[in-house]
Specification:
Keywords: Ribonucleoprotein, Ribosomal protein. InterPro entries: Ribosomal_bL35 (IPR001706), Ribosomal_bL35-like (IPR021137), Ribosomal_bL35_CS (IPR018265), Ribosomal_bL35_sf (IPR037229). The chain has 3 helices and 3 strands. With about 60 residues, the chain is α+β, with helices and mostly antiparallel strands. The protein has a single domain, classed as Irregular (Factor Xa Inhibitor), CATH 4.10.410.
Amino acid sequence: MPKQKTHSGSKKRFKVTGSGKIKKQQAGMRHNLEGKSSVRTRRLNQDKVASKADTKVINKLLGR
């Protein structure tokens, strides 16, 4: 059976913490930033921990 390759797009988008949680960048910071309040853009610019359901899929893509 061949080795499973890591998904190259996923390894650029996700970071694994020491405890095994998956950190990701939040959506909504690409365009139309003038229309969003400063409070909202600061909140969107923070990293988030991926949900438990998504973590299972992401770990598979990362080959973990």
